[in-house]
Amino acid sequence: MKRLLLLLCLPLLACPSEESLRDPGEFVLHRLNRAEYNNTVRDLFGTDLRPADDFPADDFGFGYDNIAATLSLSPLHIELYERAADRLIDDALHSGVTYPLEVAAEAEDATATVGTAGYDFGAGFWNLSTEGTLTATLEVPVGGVWFAGARAFGHSAGGEAARMRVAIDGDVLGAWDVTDVAGDAQIYGAELVLTEGPHTLEVAFTNDFESAATGADRNLLVDRLVLQGPLNVESPPNTKRDRLIPCDPGELGRRTCAAHAIRTFTERAWRRPISEDELLGLLGIYDLVIVEDDFDLAVASAIKAAMLSPWFVFRVELDANANDPTPHPLSAFELAARLSYFIWSSTPDDQLLDAARNGALETDEDIELQVARMLGDAKAEALVDNFAGQWLYIRAVEDAAPDGATWPDFDDALRDAMKQEMSLFFGMFLEEDRSMLELLTARETFLNQRLADHYGITGFSFPEDGSFTHVSFTGDRRGGILTQGGVLTATSYPLRTSPTRRGKWMLEQLLCQGPPPPPPGVEGLEEDSTTQDPETVRERLEQHATDPTCAGCHVRMDAMGFALEHFDAVGVWRDTDQGQPIDAAAEIDGEGFDGALELGAMLADDGSLSRCMAQQLYTYALGRGPQTVDWPVISDINSQFEDGGYRLAELVEAIAKSSAFRHRRGGQELTAEPPPEDATPAEEEPTRDGWEGE
Question: What is the residue-wise DSSP string for 146-159?
Fold first, then answer.
């Protein structure tokens, strides 16, 4: 039918192309996951706070935590969203230093020569009932002109008010008569130049009087000793507040400035222009709050409402008709959001929003320019943290739990080093624009002294601070990600290696050919079985695979895992297992290999590798698992990936320019059909636990 439509349209220049007629698949409203929320508020507020770390863990689908269909919303989320908004706004408004500061000591905490605390006519005050002093040492954070004194009131008697003398570092600043109204205590003192550092402030009562005949008693009651300043230094700019309120209400007028601040923030937070009605609704909140509170708090209240809106919490994409299954292009702002959350796991920046506003996201060339710019930005590190972190199991290293008695040298520092090696290694392909096939063959990596010692690698000099150095390997032991300790540890059991888990990881993550679940009733090897006959893990697995029920999956999966058996459960090279020589040779479909390096080279030559890379990044980019309609799109993307030398930037660009990435539709999901034979569907979601059929 599609081909017939194209033939009928040949005489017409305005006919849609075959690419534009492809169904983009079903999309679900996409809630920001924890990483996306943290990155988004980082870029909105300029903050280093990570409030989403306290949110409920995101569920996984198809191996990733950004799959829209799995990102549910709970009442707890709503509560924590409000708490996060309050925390972020408060940090933005109050994180800057505002001069003058007040450095004070409560009188009850000062050193007193006479008097008592808690007197019934001066609760919270210290009563200098006779002549004496109160002394405190206060830290001046910034040198300059400061005011030094004390807050106090007095009891007059004998025709005179109480007299208070103030001195600092032994030098008298002056003396003052202190009024005797308890409800109207005042601060008395004088200005002087103080240097940064500690200073001793002293308050003295100097004219005591008491009459037994009349009962008159002159006293000085001191609340606190204070330093206020610097008085001659301007407050440093609060850049976080300036991002939130980028105007001066004194110049523009309060409501005009509020409208500007609210519109600016909300359009960045909602990732699109807002309507006048939407602005008026938010200004209504400002109008309610400004009656009783200050300008900043009133603007902040409207901004908080914008942060609690579905337009912020979700990446909203709209159809003109929700029941119309006809594909249509995304709006420019929806496409900008897809690009930014794909590459940066964050909200679009001003340049990307301006491109959307100015019609500069319409052509392939426009997309290519933005992708190149975005990949060159430091925020593209999100592809390492969130895509590679899940695809290659970098995050899973955190959950690995090697047995402490068996592997006493494994600690958190080594765990962190393994994760860092994997992250830096993948980042190399982003920064150096190299072929992604070298992921399995590159004879180089990044090490620090701790990891080099663990691997038994010598001959390199590493910084003493634990930072990493790019090194090239010699010899025949290590090369590519298959020999990195993080992968090897994450795919092992606490007490032993697991060729099955390692093979399954390669099949699922690198070839997208994961095995089906094990049949019911199939028992695996015991995780802590290390002394039973046959002795080696390989011999036990080969015996296990003689069961016809298990052989179909284990033959291919275990063969790949056997190639990594020279590496123990924490990635250290070994020559024996249970005293028996390691046999790392195997074959798949008649092609033999011996060890990790030969296996890596064989997989790099397998066309399934690049197709799986395309499928994995496509899944991550769209936030959904591949559907029937996606296989031709993934095939096209893989062809562009191959033609571009298997470069990661080429793969990102091909996905961003694809019809599925730039279109959506309404209506119900298409009926699933089996994918073509040359496709590699991910019908089962990858898991991070061991394959129970082992």
Answer: EEEEEEEEEE-BTT
